[in-house]
Structure formats: structure tokens, C-alpha cells
Amino acid sequence: MRTRKIALLGSTGSIGTQTLDVVSHDEHIEVVGLSAHRNIDLLEEQIKKYHPKVVCVMDETKAQELSRRMASQNLAVEVTCGMEGLIAVATLEEAEVVVTAVVGMIGLLPTLEAIKKGKIIALANKETLVTAGDLVMETAKAYNVPILPVDSEHSAIFQCLRGNSHQTVSRLILTASGGPFRDYTKDMLQNVTVEAALKHPNWSMGSKITIDSASLMNKGLEVIEAKHLFDVSLSQIDVVVHKESIIHSMVEYIDGSTIAQLGMPDMRHPIAYALYYPERTMTSYIPKLDFTKMSNLSFEAPKKDLFPCLQLAYDALEIGGTMPAVLNAANEVAVEAFLQREISFLQIPEMIHEVMNRHICISKPSLEEILEIDKWARVYSRQEVAKL
Ligand SMILES: NC(=O)C1=CN([C@@H]2O[C@H](COP(=O)(O)OP(=O)(O)OC[C@H]3O[C@@H](n4cnc5c(N)ncnc54)[C@H](OP(=O)(O)O)[C@@H]3O)[C@@H](O)[C@H]2O)C=CC1
Ligand SMILES: CC(=O)[C@@H](O)[C@H](O)COP(=O)(O)O
Ligand SMILES: [Mn+2]
Q1: Residue of 218, 225, 331 with the most ligand 2 atoms within 8 Å of its CB, for mutation
Q2: What is the ipTM of this complex?
Q3: Which of 178, 265, 342, 356 measures 20 to 30 Å from 6, CA to CA?
């Protein structure tokens, strides 16, 4: 097997560390670039273990500190910082694949630049497609670059679609765990704590996506992500709550057959699938399903009235243009405000709704317009937080 060289954006996070775990089990994957926001202690360990050529630390002061540490230990690695540094890692000449595992729309520019350099994109950073899905997919098409999904549902759909023609697809069915508040009433949702919201029933993930899972915004973002990745109409994407997270998603075909992808809830499965695509490789270190110990797989409709974020995402997608970027920016600000205990859980969808209502949508926006609107939505959202 030949060696694949990867650049990994967001190496210190949940997807980042799990990607490195996959890499550590295989001598055929080489890491040439890494990035973090502020966690230079972990990044330093990763540099010593994986020997990248270039790293980026978003925070300039932290980057300077890491540079000093590298010099004092005679470690030959180039330390960059800020967006320029992130783009430098994403466009490293040696990198064949760029794994986008940063959180938030900060991933958009490096992903676009990586595509323009012909890199294969292993995409975990769903906010990139939510914010600028048309632009990203058009650019990928123009540069003939594959976008390989890492998000578990999209990896599942990608696998279920293999070998079947696009015209024979009837529906994509995204499964949702329902999050920690799946069985809560409206009353119970009034006073949920940050700690309770951060306890995902099945997955261990970064804090932003964990809150998104609790509000069902994660599923909303995933509906938008699926629309762009698989080029289907909005009416062809359904969501079903499947609390066990064993079926990662399904594709229903016009003849009534449904193909599902199953596996343990372990992100190393979809990460490895993207890293080795179009091949599969032995991953004996990842736990496998034992069907004899599986008593029940359950399904129910999502409670859109209790979790309005899902409908807000469908609305944003239907309106199109800059509205999904506004949905995403308002959500990023609202989730941060909830984590900082500035707003309550139920104020998350209220705030997003308010910001979306205020936005006059631009259809077919340019990248500059998207970036401008993203800025506006963040400023307006922060003003809303201040009012609450
Ligand atoms: N975790 C999961 O299982 C899944 C995640 N995803 C998606 O993958 C992406 C990453 O999620 P996850 O790994 O959970 O997130 P984490 O919060 O665990 O990690 C985020 C990573 O991005 C870095 N980072 C954070 N903010 C910035 C910034 N402003 N600029 C540059 N880098 C930054 C962090 O650095 P530092 O550590 O220094 O803060 C860290 O390396 C998200 O888009 C998420 O929706 C999709 C499916 C599953
Ligand atoms: C692991 C993964 O892909 C997450 O996006 C997961 O889907 C979150 O679980 P929810 O189904 O609760 O949103
Ligand atoms: Mn997912």
C-alpha cells in the first residue's frame, strides 16, 4: 500500500485526536501538517509523535510560545498562526488529503483554498457546507476534487449510495440520537443545565456539537450538509430519531429497498473510511457490533415542536442564499452564550429565529457577501445576547 500524506486541521479536538489514533495504527499514513486553536500542550505532544512539517496555532501568543518551545528542544517544525497559518497547513504541497476537523465556519476559507490546490477533502467540519455549500461544492467540481464525508450520517449515506445510480434514490434518512433531552417535556427543558446538555448519550464529542445534538440543531445542520453533499431535493431528506445510534443513516431507493449502514458509535469508523477511500482497510482496534447482544433498535419521529432548531434549519435551507450562513452564525453565537451561561437552553432557538427574521436574504451570494453576512449575523446575535 502506498503512503498517504495528510494535513489535519483541528488536531487537538475530538475528531482530530481520533484521526491521529487511526494514523497511529497505520504506517501508511503520514502527517505533514497539524493545527490547534490554543491547546499547545497537546499540539507539542502530537508534534513529537507525528513529526509534521508545518503546524498552525490560531492564537498568536500561543504560537509564539510553541515556537520558543520547539527552538529550545531543537525540533524542526515551522510554526504558523492565524488564518494565514491555517491556510498554509491546508495547502501544504506534500498533503494529498486535508482532514477538516476544526469547529465552526472558521473552516471555510482553508477548505476552499485546499480545494483550489487539488487536495482531497475529508470533511468533518459541517459548518463549512452549511455556510457556503453551493460555493464549496461548485469549487470542488471545478477543481475535480472529491469531498469525502467524515460526519457519521453522511459517511453512512455515502457508503449506502455506492454502486447505485443517483436517479434511483428516493430518500435519504438521517438518524438522530435525539440527544440527552429526547424524552423531556417543554417544562423540563426550561431549566436544563450546561452540564446536562453536555452529556451526550452515545458519543463523546467537542462541546459545540454536543450542544447542537441536544437542541437538534446538529441534525438540522446535517440536513443542509446532506443536501449539498448528495445533491437531492429538500423533500428527499428525512430525519428519524434512533436512540441507539447503531444505524448511522439509510438510503431508500425507488423500488422500496432501504440500505442502512450499521456500526458501533465510534468516529474512527467514518474517519478510517474517508482516509482509505476508495479502499477499505482492517481496523481491528475499533470495536465491532455484536448482534447477539443487541436487543432493540428503536425509531420515532423527531419532536420538532420541542426542538425548533431542526425546523429552523429546514426553513433556512428552503429560503436558501445567505440564510443558512445566518442560521449557522447565530447558532455559533447562541451555543457559546449558552455554554457561558448567558442564555438558557430554550433561548438558543429563540435567538436564531430572531436573527433569521431580521436578515434580508441574498440569493446566489459571492464568498465576500457570505463573509460579510456572517459578520453581521454574529454582531446582531451578540447584541441579542446582551439584551437577554
Ligand atoms: N466530535 C465528533 O464526533 C464529530 C464532529 N463533527 C464535526 O467536526 C468538527 C470538529 O468537532 P469536534 O472535534 O467535536 O470539536 P472540538 O471542539 O473537540 O475540536 C475543535 C478543534 O478545532 C480547534 N479550534 C477551535 N476553535 C478554533 C478556531 N477559532 N480556529 C482554529 N481552530 C479552532 C480546536 O483547537 P483547541 O483544542 O486548541 O481549542 C480543536 O483542535 C465540527 O464541525 C463538528 O461539527 C462531525 C461529526 C462528529
Ligand atoms: C457522531 C456524529 O456524527 C455526530 O454528528 C452525531 O450524529 C451526534 O449525534 P446526534 O444524532 O445526537 O446529533
Ligand atoms: Mn453526525
Answers
A1: 218
A2: 0.99
A3: 265
User: In terms of C-beta density within 10 A (0-12 exposed, 13-18 middle, 19 or more buried), how is residue 166 classed?
Assistant: exposed
Give the model confidence (pLDDT) of 126-157 as tens digits.
999 999 999 999 999 999 999 999 999 999 99
Q: What's the number of CA atoms in the CB half-sphere (13 Å) around residue 272?
A: 19
CATH number of the domain located at residue range(s) 320-388 in this protein: 1.10.1740.10
Domain boundaries, the chain: 4-149, 151-265+295-312, 320-388
The x, y and z cell numbers of residue 60, run together, are 498568536
Is 206 near ligand 1, meaning CB less than 6 Å away? yes
Architecture of domain 4-149: 3-Layer(aba) Sandwich (3.40)
Condensed to tens digits (0 to 9), the pLDDT of residues 173-215 reads: 999 999 999 999 999 999 999 999 999 999 999 999 999 999 9
| Cβ contacts of 272-280, under 8 Å, gap ≥ 24 | 272/22, 273/155, 273/158, 273/159, 274/99, 274/122, 274/148, 274/149, 274/150, 274/155, 275/4, 275/6, 275/19, 275/22, 275/23, 275/29, 275/97, 275/99, 275/122, 277/146, 277/148
* Residues 6 or more apart in contact with residue 345 via CB below 8 angstroms: 189, 192, 197, 214, 215, 338
